[in-house]
Write a structure and sequence with these properties.
The chain is of the alpha+beta class. It has one domain. Helices cover 38% and strands 15% of the residues. It is built from 4 helices and 3 strands, in the order ββααβαα. It has a 3-stranded mixed sheet with strand order 1-3-2. It is globular, with a radius of gyration of 13 Å. Bound molecules: zinc ion (ZN). Zinc ion binds next to strand 3 and helix 3.
Length: 88
């Protein structure tokens, strides 16, 4: 298996550092991710942001963020449809 360097991705994607290690996870919306960061303490939010990589917040609506289960839990993003799951 080889991995091509992807400098310019037509579809903007970010992923946490654990994806390469083969962790399981899901994609979340960039806006959702940023909202989650805003709920976290500054230090924790910064650490989480560094795991995923930087992107302009103005690009968030066009960015997909892949998080492993552990990172999703850390960011309190239990699932892509967390709001609906809570309502059930
Ligand atoms: Zn992770």
């Amino acid at each position: 298996m080889t991995t091509k360097p992807t400098l310019e991705q037509p579809h903007r994607e970010r992923e946490c550092v654990h994806r390469r290690a083969g962790a399981e996870g899901d994609f979340y919306g960039g806006v959702q991710f940023i909202r989650a960061l805003q709920q976290m303490r500054g230090e924790a939010a910064l650490a989480m942001a560094q795991k995923v990589g930087a992107f302009f917040w103005s690009d968030a609506p066009r960015v997909s963020v892949w998080l492993c289960r552990a990172c999703a839990r850390e960011a309190a993003l239990a699932g892509p449809d967390i709001a609906e799951a809570d309502a059930a």
